[in-house]
Design goal:
With 378 residues, the protein is α/β, with parallel strands linked by helices. Helix content is 37%, strand content 33%. Helix 1 packs parallel to helix 2 and helix 3 crosses helix 8.
């Protein structure tokens, strides 16, 4: 089992080739502008000096975020391109998990920190228990002073690493009586740690295709925030005047689309139905719907116009439906999704849905199975 792993989430560009538990080669370059100018050269050098061919790689892995928006995209583009070329799976490894893995079997708490700008860091808390890395706090963007307060309240030996440990060194000195900073060789991401976690993901079957893999940014880049602001995305209840545009999106999105009459009936006759649309400058670009039956919500459909995909509008729709379900006192929510629709399944998993079963031959056009997904709301 050979793995090529790449991490470009920080100022350091790093790549490694591992075979099972053996590290064949690793390259770390911590200089400015290393990603776009150097990373392909680094990868070529790894293959050339290790004697491994790109076609021999069984699994391609890269840091999935959080981290530098530009850096992450460069690494992901390379890995997805190679995975597509050779028809191999992709492991998207959480950046902070891989960073924490640098400190194998470290005692106490491990706190990776990556600069999120404006006095904040991307951070999580981990500990090692019986040889397994356990996440004690979820991913978040947190102000450095708030993170220091959390560490102080836990009153446990804590080791910091990541570029945030250097950037906010003075804050740590002022706020904490005792703490540790990882040594230089473990301070920044290492592709070998990314590869080791990728191996565990492979063993669990938790992999992506080149097409389904998505980066985890947590916070929008400044460019994305400005773009959304300019686009003026609005969510509102669906009206009869929206149906023509909704039907256009429906026909562009599904092999068996709902009819106009179906949407009219949902709005006029179904008291259980809740439908919302997303509009950009007054134009309907996406919609989502669900039924609330007693204490359970059921998402019926979500679709985004092809011209507006990749802008996280679908994610906003799901979040809005979840809020509506909670406000309607639903305790859980469910949906069906095609087994082959990796992108949709990743979207729902990101929102906390888990697989709950299979409906065999559910879809009438090709008898494809449907995956039943659930999420508890209470």
């Amino acid at each position: 089992m050979k793995i090529l792993a790449v991490d470009t989430s920080t100022s350091a560009a790093t790549a490694a080739i591992m075979e099972n538990d053996r590290l064949i080669s690793e390259y770390i370059l911590n200089i400015k502008k290393a990603h776009s100018e150097k990373i392909m050269g680094i990868i070529d050098d790894l293959f050339g000096k290790s004697g491994v061919e790109p076609s021999e790689i069984d699994l391609y892995a890269c840091s999935a975020g959080p981290g530098s928006f530009t850096g992450l995209r460069i690494g992901a583009s390379i890995i997805k391109g190679m995975a597509q070329t050779f028809g191999k799976p992709v492991a998207g490894v959480p950046t902070l998990d891989a960073l924490a893995y640098n400190l194998y079997n470290c005692t106490g708490l491990i706190c990776p920190m990556l600069d999120a700008q404006r006095g904040a860091v991307y951070s999580s808390l981990y500990s090692w228990e019986k040889g397994s890395l356990i996440k004690q706090e979820n991913l978040s963007v947190i102000l450095i002073n708030d993170l220091i307060k959390i560490i102080k309240d836990k009153d446990m030996p804590t080791t910091f690493l990541g570029d945030g440990a250097l950037l906010f060194g003075d804050d740590l000195k002022k706020g904490l009586r005792e703490y540790y900073v990882a040594p230089a060789d473990s301070l920044l991401p290492r592709a070998s740690s990314c590869a080791r976690i990728a191996m565990k993901m492979y063993e669990k079957g938790s992999l992506d295709t080149y097409n389904s893999f998505r980066l985890t940014y947590i916070r929008k880049s400044q460019a994305e925030a400005e773009y959304e602001k300019k686009q003026n995305i609005e969510l509102m209840n669906m009206s009869f005047g929206d149906i023509d545009q909704v039907c256009e999106i429906e026909n562009l999105s599904f092999a068996i689309p709902w009819s106009r009459e179906s949407f009219e009936s949902e709005l006029s006759q179904n008291n259980l139905a809740r439908y919302i649309v997303a509009k950009v400058n007054g134009k309907v670009v996406a919609y989502g719907g669900m039924w609330i039956i007693l204490d359970e919500g059921h998402i019926t459909n979500i679709a985004v116009h092809p011209d507006y995909r990749g802008q996280k509008i679908g994610e906003k729709l799901v979040e809005a439906l979840l809020r509506e379900a909670k406000e309607s006192n639903a305790e859980r929510i469910t949906l069906e999704v095609r087994a082959s629709n990796d992108a949709a399944r990743k979207l729902y998993q990101k929102q906390g849905f888990t697989d709950g079963g299979i409906r065999k031959g559910y879809y009438g056009d090709n008898r494809e199975d449907a995956i039943i997904m659930w999420k508890k709301l209470t």
